[in-house]
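SEVERITY: medium
COMPONENT: batch folding queue
REPORTER: lab tech (J.R.)

DESCRIPTION
The queue accepted two submissions in a row. Attaching both inputs and their returned structure tokens so the on-call engineer can compare them side by side.

ATTACHMENT 1
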Amino acid sequence: MSEKASSTEAGDVVNTSHLEGEKAAYTQPNASDGTGRRGSVALNIVENPLKRFSREETYANAQAFAQEHEMSEHSDLFGRAALVAREGQRFEMVHELKDDERAALIYERDHKWHGSKMLWYSISLCAVGAATQGWDQTGSNGANLSFPEEFGINGTGRDEWIVGIVNAIIFLTAGLIGAFIVDPLNHYLGRRGEIFLTALCLTATPIGSAFAKSWQGLFAARFIMGIGIGAKNATVPIYSAEMAPARIRGALVMFWQLWVVAGIFLGFAANVIVKDTGRIAWRLQLGSAFIPSFILAVGIFFCPESPRWLMKHGKIAKGFESMSKLRAHPIIGARDFYYSYIIYLEEMKVAGGLGYFARMADCFRIPRIRRANYGASTVMLAQQMCGINIISFYSSTIFKNAGYSDTEALYASLGYGAVQVVFTIPTLFLIDTKGRRKLCLITFPIMAIFLLAAGLSLINNETRDVSRAARIGPVVLFVYLFTIAYSMGEGPVAFQYSAEVFPTIQREQGMAWAVCINNTFAGILSLTFPRMNHVMTPPGAFGFYAGLNLIAWGMIFCFVRETKQLTLEELDQVFSVPTKTFLGYEMKVQLPYFIKSSILRQKIPKPPPIIEKAQSDDDVLDA
């Protein structure tokens, strides 16, 4: 066995070996391939590692794989599946396929949303679990109107900080504790077991919040709730991403965000429903968040374990059984599973170690993983910098301060939740066509404008010679427009992007760090906004976050790379491009093209992409 490596920047070695006689996986383009055909002009090619072997070798290797892992009865199936994986979209040239297998592959190619019932059930159930977070946010949102008075903390200064920490603690413990117990929980319990345990936690703690007798008791219940939220938030998107086929992975994993905002809407609906129950209204608002978690705890028993988790833990035969349940035909399941296994072997070669701390260190030490970490950390931090959560956490308070009554503020918040749900749905179809990066770059400047406009609209708040409608209307309008822009960009992208960019070996650690960033800064935002709103005034607070939107745009431009329609394994090549090369391409090629074509309206040819799938004989798997 020979080992080859190519150095791309200081400390960066891209391993390009698999077995003897293989070709490099990370190649630079040539104008011609020596046969008279023009090669790709892309800066880097994503190449299928199975192309390093002949068809006969590929078939034999796959058969040996099946026999080695006690799946001898499937050896011929894996042989055919390996050839399909090798040929990619040219699978019809594989003459070894049976008629039903060929028909299944053609149907899959022509029907983007085709999948097994178990795939749709599992993705949908995980999405329901996401509603817990949104529901709890809005439960506390409504409860903020009454629980401070219940516990005698409705003053200024110290009381504002207490209200802030009670709201913030679930995010602080989610980011600083919950996210970092994900790895041991996943290791010993699996994805399903970890989700079940956290679902039980998130069923019990909202009920505990509802029975709190003091703000300290409420704080304690939410402290534990945050640990469950952090562990769940880091696992459910990974579980979804590992089950979903690449062609619709973005849309399927985005069910997470869709159900987060559905939870926000349902939480606001619950707030409105119980608003007339008197002094216990806030208790019902907080306690109702147990509903989606209870559904998740019961339903997860009927889902298969993640095939990639089983593969990682050496349970190959069980992994294939799980993948088969998640695909519409055995040939599709065998193709996806075998291809994942081949790339998993490649990842093992660059992994610094298998221990917890070694894998966590790899997220900052190994260049390919570090670049993915840059991107994931950026989109997670940007979600808090954009200011959406000052609305999610405190919209009822904001609308009340703008001039609404308590009841009107709850209804305005319900409208905010409805806007999020409605405008997240179109992004299901955009995220895998327009891409994650493009959606963020388009929407962040728009969010900055609308958030600033909402803040400026609050300046007339104290002017009594201005009609009530003129004072309140613009605030609500611009908050809703800001929410529309968020729902079609950063909202769906953050958890989707973070769940997919890390290699299998470091996926738990990478996602844990990303969730830590997201939830810790959500906690800081929730803690500081009540005091910021008082000291800086609402227009100043809104203007502050409008400015952060522009900073977040610059960070996304620099560090977030496009991942649409690539398999989780093919993303290794995307993040093998050095950061300096990536930034140079974006600044010197893509930015001038955008200015000339979109602003100056010049008709110029589109520049070559920095990453492109191999073409012709080098087609790679797109499934």
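ATTACHMENT 2
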Amino acid sequence: MSSEPAAVCGKDSGEQSALHKQSRTMYPRVFAVDLHDVDGDRFQDSRQAGFSWYVLTTTLLVSLSVISIGWSFGVVNVSKSIICQISPLGPGNTHSGEFPNRIPFSNSAWTIAVGILAVGGFLGALVSGAISDSIGRRNALVVNNGLCLAGSVLMGTATTAVHFTLGRFVIGIACGVASGVANTYVGEIAPLKWHGFYGSFFQLSIVIGLLFGQLAAMHATGGTGWRIVVAFPGVFSLIQIALLPLRVESPRYLLKAHHINEARHALLTLRRGYDVAAEWQESLLSLDVVDINASNVRYHSDQWSATAAAASAVPANDQADANALDKNDSKLTMKTKGHKAVDDNVAASSLTFAENMPVERATHVSGVWQTLCGRTRDDLRHLMACCIVLMVLQQLSGISAILFSDSGVVRDILDPFSPLSAPWTCVVVCGTSLPAIFLCLACVDRLGRRALLLGSLGGMSVCCVLISAGLFYGPNSMVMAAVFLCYFAFNMGAGIVPWFIISEVIPSYSLSAATTLCCSLYWVMSIAIGLMVPLIENIVPQWLFVIFGCFTLAGFLLVMLFVPETMNCPITEVVKKHSGNIHVVVKPYRRLNASGSIGGTSRSLLELFKC
């Protein structure tokens, strides 16, 4: 991968170079890790940090929580006849040891058991922000994995329908918490240049969970093998409980919690080999500052002294910790393995808190209602509206009607031919969507968020038209081809970008509130679509995808007009440009040049994708 910085927010290389030089002047170079390299011009800004194995392995570890979400949905998609016996008589009462081979269910009880996972997900999403703000992102995931493990054990040892349903509910709560906390954690540790790449692992993990959950359930055909399948997310939980504590906490959370030294250490660990001074300053600016002049953090060296409004993140009750830094501890000289710290005469490498200065608690967490009403430091109404619309569009696009064979277009087309055709087709649909996700991983930080969203929603609109035409006039082969293309298009943007764009447009002080609201709406819409799709299929089945097509077309227009481009844009810059009430972000078309050339118009068309 190229180590050259990518263009930031549409700026050309000249502007970017000027910005980088300005940042070196504004922000003292105090957190450089490679201290043997004392030439300031050779340090690279951590905001342009490249690929990091540490961040990748942390993201993969966090993704195990998300795989559990997909697994829990997929495992019941094809296993109804394996897990439950609808009649309370006959094979449903046969036992293998202490556990029955199958559990007696009525049709309504099975429907409740399947759907209650989304109810638990909604409740988990509601509390995810509060949990992550109280104990931290990483610790919240560790605790949540204990809940997921409990739900897995309940399902794996179920002997009655109520027992199994309770396990689904508990694991649903864990899925809801994971949907909020995992995105926040990955979004806060990912480098700006690779934010889309790491953020895309969420949807990749869901699809992998769906795919292998369905495959495992289809092959659990005898005895109590299905118990191992439904309890398997507990294995993912055990892995995370053992390994997640070895990863660093989110630096932005630590700053918000006023753990300054821990935040500095975490950021240095994540950006090893880069100068993090400018990123540190931006992290401070993303906090909700009450009195930025209350106190200062001073950076000292023998050659210069500069001040920054950083100790605004230090509360009064933590002042004792700051004063406890004596002369030996106050110089936090960073060392790299195998290298000696540079002398005080070279580029500054120590951080000292200013003594005898009044320090007040300077940050607080904004609630959902405050954020929605624009009663925060920055008016976030426009950005919040964009996040909400994108999250809701995931369910309104009709993906649930495609994926889940118990009620969907796939079942209606293929069930007359074979009872296993629909489940196998759902497995193939998930498998063929993986190339779309990998393609998105490669393009999301090159083409931008708007381009992928517009291409995805536009492609889904066309596919919904083809599915509807096939349902009205045939042939079925056209419907199936359109189904595959629709899910492929979904995973090229509409299924990926909404999960990580929240952390790209919402500052730290409102991030938990925004994530809580958006993830809760996602689960609410999942419940609503699960209830409405069977009803519409029974009344006007051929018009179902006409409705979904209208939603995706409306989403295309909303993204084109209102959703800003966030690729390589710091949060502070996005908020500065797009704070306030809802407004159109597309720039107007330029007039033709005096010579009559159409160059200006061509550029303006490009700005529809990157505005």
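NOTES FROM REPORTER
The chain has a mean pLDDT of 75.
No errors were logged for either attachment.
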